Mannonate dehydratase
Amino acid sequence: MNITFRWYGRENDTVTLEHIKQIPGVKGIVWALHQKPAGDVWEKNEIKEEIEYIQSFGFHTEVVESVNVHESIKLGNADRMKYIENYKETIRNLAEFGVKVICYNFMPVFDWTRTEMFHPLKDGSTALFYEKAKVDQIDPKELIQTVSSASDLTLPGWEPERLERISELFEAYKSVDEEKLWENLAFFLNEILPIAEANGIKMAIHPDDPPWSIFGLPRIITGKASYERLIQISDSPANGFTLCTGSMGANPENNMVEIAKEYANRSPFAHIRNVKIYENGDFEETSHYTQDGSIDVKGVVEALHNHDYTGYVRPDHGRHIWGEVCRPGYGLYDRALGIMYLLGLWDAYEAKKVGRQS
Ligand code: DNO
Ligand code: MN
């Protein structure tokens, strides 16, 4: 388990690398060129500057999250090859600087979706919250307002430029159903995976969050069946998954312990967090502690440990605690607590294993 921490860069994060350095066990920073619009090539000089800064703190920079996929690729538009070629160039450039894993997602229009960014929890903290009935009724434009006004920092997937085109995008997706989206994903993967493989990079698709269709848009990376279909598209070792317990696990039908057992070897990257799911389909993000939510985080870590998992792991979102002012879900304190929980579990399983062997 190679512990990492997501960081949004010098200009776009309240957390500093000096702070992250004080969290025990963190080996690497999960980074990105966040200012880059989807579809642009990440140039070598830009990559170099960012990783040199991060590495000057002693962190590795082997995981990128995310290189976003241009909407034309997801829609299968006539100009998609231009963006696919750019994506290939970004893969080659990142490989040259030692990147090993690229996390990406294939969600139409929106990245992760929540109805509240700072929802009060019973313990006095706040956290991201998803109210199912609200998403079923709300005009997506109104939701965009809520999300983008929640923070002064740009939230990935909710960039103002992208959202200006929202009506146009919704119109375009009218002709893209789930099957068509799968076709477009397969086309993209068949183009980029040979490049990734030849350059020693593993692509790691992030599940849709939440893992069901919202606003009538198709969503396809939602559970075990999606993983099987991805493997059918390509068995290349470069065709990997990001095992995100909180995203996929927001659907109680997805047993994350079973999924971890079955797909750990296909997942070069894991996001670990907990969510508490209510009967009406609402969910809130909780601490990582197993007893606080609906996901068996302890069981997931045990499954990874049984696999002798050497992949990259990061705490995913956290609550906002102790008065911290931060990006929604990406404060320092609760994610640091999450790391301590993961390390504690890991060490306990390790001790048990050594005990068994001696
Ligand atoms: C949610 C988060 C997401 C994720 C991107 C990956 O679980 O991890 O913001 O980073 O969707 O592309
Ligand atoms: Mn995630």
Q: What stands out?
A: The first strand starts at residue 2 and ends at 6. The chain has a mean pLDDT of 94. The CA atoms of residues 228 and 263 lie 10 Å apart.
